[in-house]
Amino acid sequence: MMLRYNRDLYTKTALLKASYHFTDSFYIHLDMDDANYLVDITTKAGPENPDIEGLFSNELLAQVTREIVVEQTKHVRELLLGRAFSSTIIEDDIQGGCAHASVSELPPPPAAQDENNIFKDWFLDHEG
Predict the structure, then answer these.
(1) Are residues 89 and 43 in contact, defined by beta-carbon separation less than 8 angstroms?
(2) How would you write the pLDDT of the chain (128 residues) with one tens digit per residue?
(3) Where are the domains of the chain?
């Protein structure tokens, strides 16, 4: 079965991801012409699936939508990850701001084997 998808509407990455999703049950051959991606789908075993065109189209649409969401939420994810990994920022109550601690000032992390200490904030346990 040969399917055509407009190259202006779908990205190559979305097409590859959608194709990979079906490789367990189908052989997928990809090509393109001037305006379209060409997708040739052949079943590996058993009868042809009459719904494969709709299933593939839906998966391609889902992949394009994921790309859009990733792009739209990029800055929020960067902020969240930056905040999560900013463990060297310690609250400075005297000035009301944040101070950066040097590595020598930081308390040692709790032992990984001690389950009681894994979920504790080790900055609070070692305040002076």
Answers:
(1) no
(2) 899 999 999 999 999 999 999 999 999 999 999 999 999 999 988 777 779 999 999 999 999 999 999 999 999 988 888 877 776 565 555 555 555 555 556 566 555 556 665 666 656 655 54
(3) 2-75, 88-126
